[in-house]
Design a protein that fits this description.
Helix content: over 70%
Radius of gyration: 15 Å
Structural class: mainly alpha
Number of strands: 0
Number of domains: 1
Largest sheet: none
Distance between the termini: 38 Å
Shape: globular
Strand content: under 5%
């Protein structure tokens, strides 16, 4: 119970502070700390991220931090991409899923540093 609460607090903080954290914290935590199979961890993380995103969005909107025009332009593509990604999740092996997810995290980290 304590580990789950700590996972939630850390991911919630990172989501609110950086606008991310769900996938980068929750997926590995679900896999390695909570021993949830990889495919289920990725899918479960989406549902965990959902309320975090709603809360953060409301606060960001209230403080005027969101640009609506890019949201409208990107949201359509994001919906299509999420449909494709959700369909493909079960078609990739756990080993390849881990490699792909790790590569995405490394690329994001390098881009953030440089």
């Amino acid at each position: 119970m304590i580990k789950k609460m700590i996972t939630g607090i850390v991911s919630g903080f990172l989501n609110g502070f950086f606008g991310s954290g769900g996938g980068t914290i929750v997926v590995p935590a679900l896999e390695f700390i909570h021993k949830i199979e990889e495919h289920k961890a990725h899918a479960t993380a989406i549902l965990i991220i959902f309320p975090l995103s709603i809360i953060s969005t409301l606060i960001y909107l209230k403080n005027g931090y969101i640009e609506i025009t890019p949201v409208l332009k990107v949201a359509g593509g994001s919906i299509i991409g999420s449909l494709i990604g959700a369909k493909l999740l079960n078609k990739i092996s756990s080993k390849n899923l881990r490699k792909f997810f790790g590569a995405i995290l490394i690329i994001a980290a390098v881009r953030m540093v440089f």
